[in-house]
Amino acid sequence: MATKGISPNELKSCNLWWKGPTWLKEEELNWPQWEIDIKEDHENEEDKLIAKVTTQISIQDIKLIDGNRFSKWLRLLRTTAWILKFIKLIMKRKLSWLQPISTEKNRLTSDDYKLAEWILIRQAQSD
Question: Coil, strand, or helix at residue 86?
């Protein structure tokens, strides 16, 4: 019996709450018999499966930049290189494919351009 919806005075005089069901006063042999179907973990009809799921993003899955918004290849290439540099800067975990990107903040290196070009080509091929 729960106490919700019952006043303190009613609870005070509720024998079921304070003393339990009447059969508790009888011998244990006279207690009601309930059949409980307990299955061991290995007997469950459904086997529980715990799996560790990891997500791996491949370069082909990345739609980094919309090349159609640029009229000049060099501007697209530079913008992509700066985006890659920004991603490398803010990522907490290291991405192996971003290793060639330089950590210099004020200029782009030839490696930055090479990786940006490679990414743009891969992106175009995956479309």
Answer: helix
Burial 40-55 (b: 16+ CB within 10 A, else e): eeeeeeeeeeeeeeee
| Over residues 23-52, mean pLDDT | 69
> Do residues 111 and 101 lie in contact, with contact meaning Cβ atoms separated by under 8 Å?
yes
Please, are residues 61 and 72 in contact by the beta-carbon 8 Å criterion?
no
Residue closest to 79 by CA, chosen among 123, 16, 22: 123
Q: What is the pLDDT of residues 95-111, one digit of tens each?
A: 788 888 888 888 999 99
Cα distance between residue 101 and residue 79, in whole Å = 13
pTM strictly above 0.90: no
What is the C-alpha to C-alpha distance for residues 35 and 20, in angstroms, rounded to an integer?
Answer: 21
Dihedral sign, CA of 49, 50, 52, 53? positive
Give yes or no for a contact between 80 and 64, defined as CB atoms under 8 angstroms apart. Answer: yes
